[in-house]
Amino acid sequence: MKKIFGISMLLLLPLLLGVNVSAQTERKVIYETTTPYHNIQVYDENGTRVLSFDGSMESKMSIDNPLAGQFEYTEYFQMPWIWNNHMKNVAMIGLGGASTHKAYQHSYPNVMIDAVELDPVIVDVAKKYFNFKESPTLKVHVADGRVFLKRSTQKYDAIIMDAYTSNRYGSFIPYHLATKEFFQLANNHMTSDGVLAYNVIGQIYGWRADIIGALYSTLKEVFPQVYLFPAKESQNVVMIATKSENRLTKKTILEKANKLGADGKVPMPLFRIRAFSFIDVMPSTANRSPVLTDDYAPTDGLLRSGEK
What does the angle CA 82 – CA 86 – CA 91 come to, to the nearest 5 degrees? Predict the structure, then answer.
């Protein structure tokens, strides 16, 4: 890199392009606390509000448009409509910044939502900093997700899972929410055409591939069909598990998504594009990954393994 008067052109480039370096990198922490479950931080950066757990980004929201979540994978939580286009009640386990909850409230005002969150501080943070509100159709339950389902008598058209904790290897799914026994419990609380949507951090081929394979294999022990929707812009895979024995092809999935969008049943602008992300493959590690059970569920250990 050439120098002008002893100054690297690399350092001058942002000024020559009229870029405000401080505006690009400024981070303003507006809340921070530690609970028995997380170190929680909320900060604003470049017009975006971020919720961080233990140093990792949990949720993002546009400050100017609170309905605009910034994580693509949350939009795949609307895929259950493809398998059940008359949903009336949904359970959402894990709150975070409530991106999915707000989207459902806005787009499907008649759908009853039970939001389940273990940490009461996160509920307060979502309400104060992320424009989340309870309503006659959305009730928050401060409880462990598995305990909540065990005590409930309700059957749901969809159960949406986005619950994570952290250790030195990064974010991972709590053991008891990733086992065959838990998935059987969830299945028992779903209607006959119910759908389970499950966010897994990892890649089908590559980083954390073993946890993807293990979750897929475990879901298949309980549900007849499992579909994979890998996010394009992040390392997330949303797995859709259905009680229906009938396997939908990609062509049928896209046809159903197009109709739901055209009819206004699912008003999310990118719904049809997100449906196109479906890949009809089995994870590369599924055949060698363990089925997770209450007696054996090394979800954090699996984070350290996988294809390179």
Answer: 85
- The structure tokens 């386990």 sit at 93
The answer to whether 259 and 181 have CB atoms below 8 angstroms apart is no
Separation CA 135–CA 38 (nearest Å): 27
At 231, which amino acid appears? A
The pTM is what?
0.87
Rounded CA-CA distance 218/182 in Å is 10
Amino acid at 108: Y
Q: What is the rounded distance in angstroms from the CA atom of residue 81 to the CA atom of residue 264? A: 12
Task: Tell me the domains of the chain and their CATH numbers.
Answer: 74-304 (3.40.50.150)
Which of 103-112, 155-164, 168-177, 254-263 has the lowest average pLDDT? 168-177
pLDDT at residue 205 in the model: 87
Distance CA 82, CA 77 (A): 11
User: Are the C-beta atoms of residues 29 and 41 closer than 8 Å to each other?
Assistant: yes
* Count of all residues that appear for the chain in the document: 308
CA gap 210, 303 in Å, rounded: 7
Q: Ramachandran region of residue 208, left (φ > 0), alpha (ψ -120 to 50) or beta?
A: left
Instruction: At 241, list the tokens.
Output: 């598990």
What are the tokens at 243? 């009680």
Q: Which residues pair with 197 in a beta bridge?
A: 160, 240
- pLDDT tens, residue by residue, 179-231: 999 999 999 999 999 999 999 999 998 888 999 999 999 999 999 999 999 99
The DSSP result for 61-93, as a single string, is EESS-TT-BS-GGGGGGGTHHHH-TT--EEEEE
Say whether 137 sits in a helix, a strand or coil: coil
pLDDT one-digit tens code per residue, 46-87: 999 999 998 888 899 999 998 876 689 999 999 999 999 999
